[in-house]
Design goal:
Belongs to the SarZ family. This is HTH-type transcriptional regulator SarZ. With 151 residues, the protein is mostly helical. It has a single domain (3-120), classed as Arc Repressor Mutant, subunit A. The protein has 6 helices and 3 strands. The chain has helices at residues 3-26, 36-45, 53-60, 64-76, 98-120, 126-150; strands at residues 51-52, 80-84, 92-96. A 3-stranded antiparallel beta sheet has the order 1-3-2.
């Protein structure tokens, strides 16, 4: 197989595999009532306290309407709390409940294990090469996304 085909095959396989593995790893008995997408919303809300719906929607690159639909389910399942702003009723504040914080930490643990598994396989000379490669991918995805948003 030529270099291009090999790299393409690996990238496509990796993205699909990570998505599937993550889904299986994070949706456990305790968190069986949410989806992988819900878990990423929980991740975007974070542990820093109150944030707004608009901040989370922007982080996730989705509309506030799409986030509202998912947020309704997360509130009903007691992962998230929300309230309207007192000064500006258009602003909706959201934050994780204790259950949501447990889900966040569970998800973060999977990411930590995945990252450590990669790092442990490398020696000190290989890490800069991997970082350069991943930064290149990151730059591509961000610029591609930005160009799609302008289309």
């Amino acid at each position: 197989m030529k270099t291009y085909e090999t790299i393409n095959d690996i990238l496509v396989h990796l993205f699909n595999e990570i998505w599937e593995l993550e889904k299986n790893a994070i949706i456990t008995e305790e968190f069986k009532d949410i989806t992988n997408n819900d878990m990423h919303i929980i991740e975007a809300i974070g542990l820093t306290g109150k944030t707004t719906m608009s901040v989370v929607a922007k982080k996730m690159k989705i509309t506030a309407g799409s986030l509202t639909t998912a947020m309704n389910a997360l509130v009903n399942k007691k992962y998230v709390l929300r309230e309207r702003g007192e000064k500006d009723r258009r602003v909706v504040y959201i934050w994780l409940t204790e259950k949501g914080q447990r889900a966040y930490r569970h998800h973060a643990k999977f990411h930590e294990q995945m990252t450590n598994a990669v790092i442990e396989e490398l020696d000190e000379t290989e890490i800069p090469v991997l970082l350069k490669t991943l930064r290149g991918l990151d730059t591509f995805f961000r610029s591609y996304s930005d160009n799609q948003d302008r289309s």
